[in-house]
Amino acid sequence: MLSYLANPQRFMGFSAWAAPLFAVLAFVLFAVGLPWALFYSPADYQQGETVRIMYVHVPAAWWAMGVYAFMGGASFVGLVWRHVLADIAARAAAPVGAVFAGVCLVTGSLWGAPTWGTWWEWDGRLTSMLALFIIYLGYLALWSAVEDEEKAARLAAILCLVGLINLPIIKFSVDWWSTLHQPASIMRSGGSAIDPSMMGPLLTMAGAFLALFGALTLYNMRAAIFRRRVEAAELRGAGA
Amino acid sequence: MSAARPFQDKPALRVDGLSIARGGRVLFENMSFAASAGEFVELRGANGAGKTSLLRALAGFLKPRAGRIEFDGEDEPALALHFIGHTNGLKPNVSARAHITYWAGLFGAPPGWDIPLQSVGLAGMSERLTRTLSQGQARRLALTRLLVAPRKIWLLDEPAAALDDAGRAMVGDLIAAHCKQGGVVVAAVHEPLGPAPSQTLTVGS
Amino acid sequence: MTFRRDLALMWGGGGVLAPLGFFLGATMLVPLAMGPERALLQSAGPPLVWIAAALAVLATLERLFQADLEDGSLEQTLLSRAPLEALVLAKGLALWCAVGLPLALAGAPAAIALQAPVERIGVIVVSLGLGMAAFIGVGLVGAAVTAGVKRGGVLIALIVLPFFAPPIIFGSAVAAGEQVGAALAILTGCALAALALGPIAAAAALRLQAE
Q1: Which of B201, B151, B147 is nearest to B7 (CA)?
Q2: Which residue of A68, B41, C50, C187 shows the fewest CB atoms closer than 10 Å?
Q3: pLDDT tens digits, residue range C118-147?
Q4: Residue B46: which domain range?
Q5: Contacts of B24 in chain A (CB under 8 A)
């Protein structure tokens, strides 16, 4: 499948119907998941209604990490096989992942206000997410700072892979740090003690985020390919 | 460097169907040529035609878009060549002698090597910091890299840039001497350097 | 050989004094911002030595490979007999000797001034030395991927700072006297891993920069 799509021509054909399909899927899943999560799921016996932030916060956190893993895979393919489409895919996914991480941070902060009584708590998970968010920003900034697009792609791919190796280390050290400084946290977001009645809306929302990621990334990739074609045509025009 | 022809006589450098693009623009396509030991290949072409890119591709810095570059009989092509680009590769606060000592280590000078400063017209300047050298003198210092450690293939990009007439003649003599010993020289030039090239390639469409 | 040259270049360019002065200046600002109260400084001061040291190293990274790329030295090292990874590692070690080690030693008076207990100074200096190695290993990558970017100082900071998190965490734990043994062991691991993997990634980036 991957090698089939490696041809940009075939990719354009595939994405022409896949991108809208993902968009519709995302719309449907959000249309189901949001009301389910916000109105028809049980309130938490401890946190009451505020637990509903979780249905946005947790999927955003999952896919902020998932998107980075996707970028790591694409970067690897781009570096090793020098494949243009893999470069474009990594670049196209990055802003989506950055927004997911940003959404996770904002909702985490909002969630913290009623639960912890503060707008920002240096909780281990939130701190790791902040590090991931900054890594996203660095990745995007490097892309835009290097003028030669091919070179930018390879350098960013190296950076992405270095980040991929470092993320577990950062996660581990932040966890070590947070147990050192705050032994008893009131609440851990996510966790294993989730009521089964919450799983339905949570997974629906996770699916909605995934479909949204698919749609946005495919549209971004199409835009990048169109832009490259226009630039190539202009260069040919200028050369002739 | 005393032996008459220390390098092998068979074709040393073979380029086959080479295409190079920079920033999405194709500079040239399907270039092929071969150079045997003792040959001096002159590259001609307008500014921006791709002479520099061709030399950088031969040196292995630039990945060509298509085609092959072969160095016959060389396991490690990068160790068989010297490259003198537009930049001289000099540090401003380091003396000429320290540069040469550094290059000797970097490129693997044979035991008993000597600082060949007089052969590039820089006699008596070994202690000068390179920021006190003129542009022409800095170019001459960069050219001593070619002599510090013997390597078969010389890739020269405008080697006589910033040099006076005596300097141009000196570069010509260096090239002639290297070819006589069985070396290969590929040089991008604007004006003839002295020794007659065995081939002249025009780069660009 | 390249190690000695890199070291000489860093010493010669006044590259040693600037980060050291920066470090001491930043340390001086800490009590000015927090007030000279001893109890407050005692708890917050020593970890702030780490922040100052991290920023001082950061400031040395921008020109690390950029100068070599611009003056053509990088091309010459690509034709060398030694692998580029080894040359990059040599540069990292030279930076550690020229900047990392002096900063770690300067950490002693800085920590004393910020009211760290005197018996902990030795271990703080050791941890700073290890932390500098970890910072430099990561910094090599940041410097290499931004070598072609003009005025890339802020960009390097953005790229490198999140990766400074682990050494900062364990280093500050040492400085604050919390779980010193474990933190030192992990810090050593961070330093070794960064110096082993950093040059590989940095060399890959530099080969691209030379294109």
Answers
A1: B151
A2: B41
A3: 888 999 999 999 999 999 999 999 999 999
A4: 11-202
A5: 149-150, 228, 231-232, 235
For residue B103, give the CATH number of its domain.
3.40.50.300
Rg (CA), chain B: 17
Contact of A217 with A96, CB cutoff 8 Å: yes
Residue B3 lies inside a defined structural domain of this protein:
no
CA A206/CA A224 separation, integer angstroms: 27
> Chain B residue with minimal CA distance to A146?
B23
Delimit the domains of chain C by residue range: 2-209
What's residue B63's pLDDT? Answer: 87
Which value does ipTM take for this structure? 0.88
Strand partners, B69: B15
Domain count, chain B: 1
Whether residue B1 lies inside any domain: the answer is: no
Q: Do B98 and C5 touch (CB under 8 A)?
A: yes
Query: Which B positions 91-110 lie with beta carbon below 8 A of chain C?
Result: 91, 93-94, 98, 102-103, 105-108
DSSP C16: T
Nearest chain A Cα to B27, which residue?
A239
Backbone conformation region of residue B92, classed left if phi is above 0, alpha if psi is from -120 to 50, else beta:
alpha
B25 DSSP β-pair partners: B22
| pLDDT tens for each residue of C71-87 | 999 999 998 888 999 99
